[in-house]
Amino acid sequence: MTDLYPVDPAFASQARISGEDYQRDYQTSVRDPEAFWKQAAQRLDWYKAPTRIKNVSYDLDDFRIRWFEDGELNASVNCLDRQLEKRGDKTALLFEPDSPDAASYPVTYRELYERTCRLANALRALGVQKGDRVTIYMPMIPDAAVAMLACARIGAIHSVVFGGFAPNSIADRVADCGSKLIITADEGLRGGRKIPLKANVDAALKLPGTNSVETVLVVRHTGGAVDMQMPRDRWFDAVVEGQPAECEPERMNAEDPLFILYTSGSTGKPKGVLHTTGGYLLYAAYTHEAVFDLREDDVYWCTADVGWVTGHSYIVYGPLANGATALMFEGVPNYPDMSRFWQVIDKHQVTLFYTAPTAIRALMREGEEPVKKTSRKSLRLLGSVGEPINPEAWRWYYEVVGDSRCPIVDTWWQTETGGIMITPLAGAIALKPGSATLPFYGVQPALVDANGEVLEGATEGNLVLLDSWPGQMRSVYGDHQRFIDTYFRTYPGTYFTGDGCRRDEDGYYWITGRVDDVINVSGHRIGTAEVESALVAHPKVAEAAVVGFPHDIKGQGIYAYVTLKAGEAPGDDLVKELVAWVRKEIGPIATPDHLQWAPGLPKTRSGKIMRRILRKIAENAPDQLGDTSTLADPGVVDSLVSERKVK
Ligand code: WTA
């Protein structure tokens, strides 16, 4: 029997989108995308309304993705200026600090507008022009949004780097896009601990390739001591002071870049996913309103960090373009205790709550008591994003957090897609725990086999998308060929997501996880190649192979096999040293959970590492190794298996 949660009639009677609406509009959106998106584009304010709506070809010889290509607009104007008349005094961002003892405060649309304009003027005065790249390495504070919007206002392309990344990772990202300016803070605060953001930037800028940076703006946040290197480093307060609270926005073409966001892929270094202005903003705003069933008086909280795409689309651009109130939380779910999320919900009367399965699983482990001692009556809808949610966690979220009152939207999407792609609409689509259910408007999923044959009916395969949608990424920054090769060459004529997926008898989609060499750790994408190259950069390491393995809380953990150079002795101290090394090279999110010494790695005769086998060993499923006959030295596998068993 399928576990089905029908649409709640009480919810549906108030909802923006009914089941009939969805069926009808979905059909229109795929039958006549031009008409559908032309109409949808009216939700944005344009200097020049687009007349050419969609110009897309996935044909490798004639490749192009363009939406609204003759339209002109400015993203910050859509998020700020146009809200002033009706919502000037409405809270745009509601800041909740790391510690419940520190003061939370609202930032109204008018204040956000003025702060953005001041910074935008300051950036212009510092020589930042349309098309220049600006790196943002910030804690979860309203100035992070101000920084993004100020870039958007003057047409500078922002590249937000997650505050948990180490200096090397910052340097790689700065170098790749040639940033002219960095906006950071003295320190961040998470769970009572200080994150040395400015010191990390200092260390990054000592690394090669970062000469493009002329200025570092430093927000005073914790007041901690920092080393200011003049004239490069400037206090944020000092440069915005005296700037006018109005700033002439840049008129942007719909296809002008809005931002770059680096994400991990199967191979090589992280790629700079490039999003453009019109299509991205429209898609973020539309999905935010529809999926969260947004109402004027909602208090909406997405727990993601602005360093990830979820923070871009569903803390900053989507909610602000919709005139919503978005809570911005600097802290973590378990500080000062396990009730923190639920207390914040009560304190600010949050109505819409969007978080990740990994957080739910971690909180679930602590039992119901920390949840039950709070009210949560204000909640009316819950969301999940970042990785598959196991049905057990789904039910706990539904029953314990939502008191069996609030529908859950399990939203599947990617950095590359810009916004939510497969999701329930709570007034329209019955829920099944663990399924992202059905496609959003304009989204045409298909499942293909290894040869690219489209599979019909209830089946399992690789998830591709048959046609474009406005929020689609447009390029890999600086490497358009890599964009085409990565996403459009595997199954020609389609966009390949890198995810595996099952479709059931009702046509519902169940994402099964990555089918490439990307590991999803607590909803963060880590490329195995990145961790491997960090490991082999250590002087004692000859070779490394990294795979994912199932992890109760994180979804997937990182399992590293390491071969030492001749003469180096393995030992527990060296395990610790290598784990610390990876944290220092990439950042704490890439910390290996297991490190196994490998006298040799299983390779084909042509020298290719057989990860399939390594994955099975990491999963502790040596009986499922499959065919090992093509290995150059099958004996290697036996020794790895026997080592693994000891643990
Ligand atoms: C996974 C995050 C199952 C998936 C928005 C995807 C999910 C990758 C879900 C993108 C979900 C995201 N159910 N899997 N609801 N949401 N994923 O780029 O593997 O950080 O390809 O974007 O996360 O991660 P990214």
From TrEMBL:
ATP binds at residues 386-388, 410-415, 499, 514, 525. Keywords: Acetylation, ATP-binding, Ligase, Magnesium, Metal-binding, Nucleotide-binding. Mg(2+) binds at residues 536, 538, 541. Acetylated. Deacetylation by the SIR2-homolog deacetylase activates the enzyme. Its cofactor is Mg(2+). It is an enzyme of class 6 (ligase). It holds the Pfam family AMP-binding. Residues 530-608 form the AMP-binding enzyme C-terminal domain. GO terms for molecular function: acetate-CoA ligase activity; AMP binding; ATP binding; metal ion binding. One of its GO terms (cellular component) is cytosol. Belongs to the ATP-dependent AMP-binding enzyme family. Catalyzes the conversion of acetate into acetyl-CoA (AcCoA), an essential intermediate at the junction of anabolic and catabolic pathways. AcsA undergoes a two-step reaction. In the first half reaction, AcsA combines acetate with ATP to form acetyl-adenylate (AcAMP) intermediate. In the second half reaction, it can then transfer the acetyl group from AcAMP to the sulfhydryl group of CoA, forming the product AcCoA. This is Acetyl-coenzyme A synthetase. It comes from Pseudoxanthomonas dokdonensis.
